[in-house]
Design brief:
membrane, mainly alpha, about 475 residues, about 70% helix, two-stranded antiparallel ribbon, Amino acid/polyamine transporter I, APC_superfamily
Length: about 475
C-alpha cells in the first residue's frame, strides 16, 4: 500500500524523501489540521505521553524493588538506549512527515507484514499504557480526595479519568497539547523543588559514593530496566503529529531526541535523590506507595506533598490523553491503507480529530480499566498493565531499530555509523526483553509474554485476511 513517488540515490539530511500513502476511497473529506502545532506543542505530546511526574511518584519505587541501589544505573542505561533509539526513529522523521509513526517507518523498511506487527505492537502498548496510567490517576486522585475526607471508588475514578481524557483528545490537538505541556511543566517544577529541598537538608551530598554498590547486581539492574523503559515509553508520540506539526521535518526530530534525553537526566537525578532521602528513615523506597509525600513530610515541607499529589493526578491523566492522541493517528493511518475499518479514518470537520478512532480507544480503555479495577486491586492494575505494555513498546522499538539501516540501504544511504548505532540500540533493547522472561517472573507476569505473542499471531491472521480482501477488491476493479 506504500508507493514511493520520488527518491534520491544518496539521501542527505537536506535531501528529503517524499513518500505518499494513498487515502482510501471511503475516507472522510476532512483532514487533520495541518501546520497547527508549534515546537513546544509537539514537545507537549511527547512529554505528556512520557508523564515524567509519574516516574518518581510511582515507578521509581517499583524499579527500586527490583534493582535496589542500582536503580539510577537502570535509568542511565534506559536513557542511553532511548537516545540511541531516537536516532533510529529520526532516520525516518527527518525525511518525511506521516501520522503513522513507527507503523509507517517499519513498513517502509521491512515491508507490510512486519510493519503491521509493529503497528499492532504499538497500539497494544498505547492501550495497555493508558489503562496503567489511568490506574495511577485513580490511585493519586483517591489520595487527593482523602485530604478532604472524600471517598470515591477506584472504578468510578478510572471511568471519570477515561471520559475526561477522551473529551480532551476530541477537543482538538492544539488545545490538548498546550494543556498537557503546561500541566507537566508545573508538576515537574514542584517535584524539582522537593528535590532541591532534599539536597539542601542532606548538604548536597549526592554522589555515587553515597550508594552502597555492594547491594548492586547486574541481574537486579536488568530486571529493573524493563520498568525503567516504561518511564520513557511514548516519547516517540511526536512522530504521529507529522501531518499537524509546523516544520515537521525539523521540529519532530528535535522533540524525539530532546524528550528522552531531558527526562532521562531528570529520572537519574531523582532516583539518586530519592534513594538518599529514604536512607536512614527506617522505611523502604521499594514498598512506599507515596514516596514523594513521605519525603516532603520527613523534610518538613508537607504542603509540597499535597501539590505533588495533585501534580501526579494531572500527569497520569495527561499521559492517557497523549497515548490516546498518538494511537488514534496510527489507527487512522492503518484505516487509510485499508487494514482497519473505514470509520477509523473519519475526521471531524470542525475539530480536525479522528473521532471514531479516539472513541474506540477510549471505550476499550474504559472496559479494560473498570473491569480489572473491579476484579483486582488498583495497584495490581497499574503493575500488570504497565508491565505488559513494555512488551508492545520494546518489540515496536526493536523493529524500527532493524528497519532504519534496511531503509537506508534500500535508498543507498547506509553508512557504517548507522549499522553500529542500530546494533548498540538493539542490544540495549534486548536486555529488558530477556530480563522480562529470564529468570521467569512470578505471579501473573509470567503469562504476559504469551498474551502478547497471542496478540501478534491474531494480528497477523487479521492482516492476511484484510490484505486478501484488498487484493480481491483491486482485482475486481
Amino acid at each position: 500500500m506504500h508507493e514511493k513517488i520520488s527518491t534520491t540515490s544518496s539521501i542527505e539530511p537536506a535531501q528529503k524523501i517524499i513518500i505518499q500513502h494513498p487515502i482510501s476511497a471511503t475516507e472522510n473529506s476532512a483532514e487533520l489540521k495541518a501546520n497547527s502545532l508549534s515546537f513546544f506543542e509537539v514537545l507537549g505530546e511527547s512529554v505528556a505521553s512520557i508523564a515524567p511526574t509519574a516516574t518518581p511518584a510511582i515507578t521509581i519505587p517499583v524499579v527500586f524493588a527490583l534493582a535496589g541501589n542500582g536503580t539510577w544505573i537502570s535509568y542511565i542505561i534506559a536513557t542511553v538506549a532511548c537516545v540511541l533509539l531516537a536516532k533510529q526513529v529520526n532516520v525516518f522523521s527527518r525525511r518525511y512527515a506521516t501520522s503513522g509513526s513507527i507503523y509507517t517507518y517499519v513498513t517502509d523498511g521491512l515491508g507490510g507484514h512486519v510493519g503491521f506487527v509493529s503497528g499492532a505492537s504499538i497500539l497494544f502498548a498505547y492501550i495497555t499504557t493508558a489503562v496503567a496510567v489511568l490506574a495511577g490517576f485513580a490511585i493519586y486522585a483517591h489520595s487527593l480526595l482523602a485530604y478532604f475526607h472524600i471517598s470515591v471508588s477506584y472504578p468510578f475514578l478510572m471511568a471519570l479519568g477515561t471520559f475526561s481524557a477522551w473529551f480532551m483528545a476530541q477537543k482538538g490537538v492544539e488545545v490538548s497539547t498546550k494543556t498537557m505541556m503546561i500541566m507537566e511543566f508545573l508538576s515537574v517544577s514542584i517535584i524539582s523543588i522537593l528535590g532541591i529541598v532534599l539536597l539542601f537538608t542532606h548538604h548536597f551530598a549526592i554522589n555515587p559514593n553515597n550508594v552502597d554498590f555492594t547491594n548492586v547486581s547486574f541481574s537486579g539492574i536488568a530486571s529493573g530496566l524493563g520498568l525503567a523503559f516504561f518511564s520513557f515509553v511514548g516519547f516517540e508520540g511526536a512522530a504521529s503529529m507529522g501531518k499537524e506539526a509546523k516544520k515537521p521535518l525539523k521540529n519532530i526530530p528535535r522533540v524525539i531526541m530532546l524528550s528522552p534525553l531531558v527526562v532521562g537526566i531528570f529520572f537519574v537525578i531523582m532516583s539518586l535523590i530519592m534513594i538518599m532521602g529514604f536512607s536512614g528513615t527506617g522505611n523502604s523506597l521499594g514498598t512506599s506507595t507515596a514516596p514523594l509525600a513521605f519525603l516532603a513530610s520527613q523534610n518538613h515541607v508537607s504542603f509540597l506533598g499535597y501539590c505533588i499529589t495533585l501534580g501526579a493526578v494531572i500527569s497520569f491523566w495527561s499521559s492517557s490523553v497523549g497515548v490516546i492522541t498518538a494511537g488514534s493517528r496510527i489507527m487512522m493511518k492503518m484505516s487509510d491503507e485499508g487494514f482497519l475499518s473505514d470509520k477509523f479514518a473519519f475526521i471531524n470537520k470542525k475539530k480536525k480529530t479522528p473521532t471514531y478512532a479516539i472513541g474506540f480507544a477510549g471505550s476499550l480503555i474504559t472496559v479494560l480499566g473498570v473491569s480489572f479495577s473491579l476484579l483486582a486491586s488498583i495497584e495490581n492494575v497499574y503493575d500488570w498493565y504497565g508491565t505488559i505494555a513494555v512488551w508492545g513498546f520494546l518489540i515496536a522499538y526493536l523493529l524500527v531499530t532493524i528497519s532504519a539501516p534496511v531503509f537506508l540501504f534500500k535508498n543507498k544511504s547506509l553508512k557504517i555509523g548507522n549499522i553500529i548505532s542500530a546494533l548498540i540500540t538493539g542490544l540495549l533493547l534486548l536486555i529488558p526483553i530477556i530480563g522480562s522472561i529470564y529468570p521467569e517472573p512470578s505471579g501473573p507476569a509470567k503469562f504476559f509474554p504469551f498474551i502478547f505473542v497471542g496478540w501478534i499471531i491474531i494480528s497477523l491472521i487479521f492482516y492476511d485476511i484484510r490484505k486478501r480482501k484488498l487484493l480481491n477488491t483491486d482485482f475486481q476493479r
